[in-house]
Fold this protein.
Amino acid sequence: MTTADGLSLATRGLRKSYGKRLALDGLDLSVPSGVVYGFLGPNGAGKTTTMRLLTGLLHPDAGTIELLGKPFRRGDRKRLFQVGALVESPSFYPYLDGRQNLRALASAGASVPAGRVEELVGLRDRARDKVAGYSLGMKQRLGIAGALLSDPKLLLLDEPANGLDPAGIVAMRETLRNLAASGKTVFVSSHLLAEVQVLADVVGIIAAGKLVREGTLDAMLNDQGVVRVRVAPAQLDAARALLEPMAAVERTGSLDGDPWLTVHLEPARAAEVNQRLASQGIFASGLESGTDLEMLFLELTGGENKGSSEGTFRAIDIAGQGQGQGAGQGRGAA
Amino acid sequence: MRIFISGLRKLIGRPASFVSVGLLVGLLALILIASATAGQSSGARGAAAARQLLTFPGSYDFVLSFLFGFGGLVAVTFAAAIAGSEWSWGTLKNAVARGESRARYMLALFAAIAVMVAVGLAISFALGIGVALVAANIAGISTAGVTDSDTLARLPAMVARGWFAVVEQAALGFAIATLARSQLAGIGAGIAFYFGEGFAQIFLPDIVKYMPFAVARASVDTGAAGGGGFGGGAAAAGALSPDTALVLVGVWLVGSLAVAVLFTERAEITG
Ligand SMILES: Nc1ncnc2c1ncn2[C@@H]1O[C@H](COP(=O)(O)OP(=O)(O)O)[C@@H](O)[C@H]1O
Ligand SMILES: [Mg+2]
């Protein structure tokens, strides 16, 4: 479980192409033991490809994987006995019921009784129904149950929240946090920042097959801290001149009332900003502090299609009136 | 062993298993009952042939040759469906991601198919003989030959050969569907191969006689059989001897499985 360097999972320079399409371009992941690691990235970033490499479904073109403290190469499939995984969509025999499917999975070794994992994912009452009649959310939950069946040290879940209802998402989050608390490592991918933000201890952001940011959520939030002050238009330039020595400042539009200035500063220094302005007779009509991980995520991944090899959905104005707004723009004061 | 048991369990509950046996028995029953009807009106054309089908011990040979002939086609589609769905449904992915050996998984799955083929043939044989007895009674033909000791003595060897030949055809469907990575494509290609081979035999008998379906037919063609099943001409001139054919059946069986296993071992699983 815990290795010399305390990592459950590490990749170095991982590369993988599908034909000519490069999916992973030198991925370096470091996943500490006993945490929930949020693997965040937009559609097509390479999350599923990473999961496939980690579970031996694919083999890397270059680079190395270290799984549970030892190199993971072609012949090392038995290491996966200690790994539970749900890769891409959950896959089952549709003509068998949930219990029979779990039993089929367990033929490759199970240490937790099927009934217990069914209970855990809330499928107890429907365990004897054929999977063909399951909703997406039920299949997803059965998939998570299957991943938990071997009581794995490392859990790899590829967008497990897909298809779950809000209550299911909350319950899953709870389950994963409990698992991490009991010393297991949970590596979970998502394309939703909000999801990762409430779930993960450590976050890695992937875009276009590369890791663009990795760290604890706390550190990342601090890095991305912002303090916003609202001042009268007449004092705007004076305020900006005062604050610029502290950190980068930019003006943020506002639809009504005084304009906002955004200072890229950790949230804890809001009072300092206020004091500095007040000392020169500038009194803020509004003061906010917080983080803007979403801004970072969009910046890293969205924009002019730079992050994703798949491209992304762009907002367009179908009626042809007014201005179309791209993703990431048009955010008012947070 | 556990994968094999699990594979067997999966196949027992599977609709394709029932459909396959149902198809085999249904069609056989249809032929036998139709023969009974034709055999009753002794003046009708073909009445003699129909009565011959229903006369034991010859009926044993007819039932077996039907099962080994048409059963081969059913086995191709059955095995193709099983192998193909492992890819289509992503269940192979599950096994591999859990650390299962790909080769062992495929071989265990095929072993389960081979056992299912044996069970399916046994059930179909029992039901087929039952229907043949009923049909003989309808046509008013004596069933005294059912206990013919000569026939009963050579039955086990015939059945064993037939099972082996049907399993070889199953292996072919298994390999084709694995290469196609798809249930439907595998079934389609398997059926096309079956009829394509039968058709090609008309033009290229010297080559086709070594092909998988032809050797399967030749390996069970141990004499008394009344020319059976589908897909083509029995014992043409220059046909392989049953024992040579049996060896070739083994070669095709092993070859097909090797192809399926090697392909799976090397495949990139992205389903
Ligand atoms: N089986 C495949 N064949 C070809 N290209 C693929 C395949 N799977 C994924 N890709 C491509 O690889 C890139 C990464 O995909 P993927 O790992 O599925 O991203 P994510 O899971 O982050 O959405 C994408 O450009 C995708 O189109
Ligand atoms: Mg994905």
